[in-house]
Amino acid sequence: MLIDRIECIVYADLSHKKKENYNFHKVSAVLAEYGFNCIKLSDDWEGADFLAHHDLVTLKVQLKARITISKKYLNKNLYIIFPLDDSNLKSDWCLIKHDLLVDIIREHNNWLNTSSWLKKGLYHSAKAPKEILPYLEKYIVNTKKFLNLY
Fold first, then answer.
1. Most exposed among 30, 32, 77, 145, judged by the fewest C-beta atoms under 10 Å?
2. Rounded to an integer, what distance in angstroms lies between the CA atom of residue 42 and that of residue 5?
3. pLDDT tens-place string over residues 104-136
4. H-type helices in the chain, by residue range?
5. Contacts of 24 by beta carbon, 8 Å cutoff, 6+ apart
6. Beta strands in 8-145 (DSSP E)
7. Taking a C-beta distance cutoff of 8 angstroms, is the pair 19, 65 a contact?
């Protein structure tokens, strides 16, 4: 069968696995602008979904479709990457050390006092809370001149 055209996908219609693959390729393309080669892992090695390798550093990265913190990612030298708004396919992505994100949330938000965090060890939201956006700004990945890692 000869196919003469393929339509753009509708993200909302994708399965969870296809969304994860789509998001991996989106962030890989942006990170390539900084010289990273992203290597998808078949399992969550030390909490990482993929490695972002650069001549200067290799990052262990957990890919999320929304801003997420989890106790299982604490103290693993793990980066987390997520869109600032999961309802917008053109949203900027934020790449930040997971533990730093938890510290920012501890200081400027109440997520660590919720039953979700206290009982399940997890909290996520469709959008990054307004009160922490100023602290995330330097970690937004949008092909600006520099990528802040610390």
1. 145
2. 31
3. 999 999 999 999 999 999 999 988 999 999 999
4. 16-32, 98-108, 115, 133-136
5. 38, 40, 49, 50, 63
6. 37-45, 48-53, 58-63, 67-70, 79-83, 93-97, 122-125, 140-141
7. yes
**Cα 66 from Cα 81, distance rounded (Å):** 9
User: Can you state the percent helix, strand and coil of the chain, rounding each to 5?
Assistant: 35, 30, 35
97 contact partners, CB below 8 Å, separation of at least 6:
77, 78, 79, 80, 149, 150
Exposed, middle or buried, 100 (CB in 10 Å: 0-12/13-18/19+)? middle
pLDDT tens, residue by residue, 74-105: 999 999 999 988 777 778 899 999 999 999 99
What mean pLDDT do residues 134-148 have?
Answer: 85
Q: Are strands 58-63 and 79-83 parallel, antiparallel or unpaired?
A: parallel
Q: Single out the residue of 91, 76, 92 nearest to residue 143, CA to CA.
A: 92
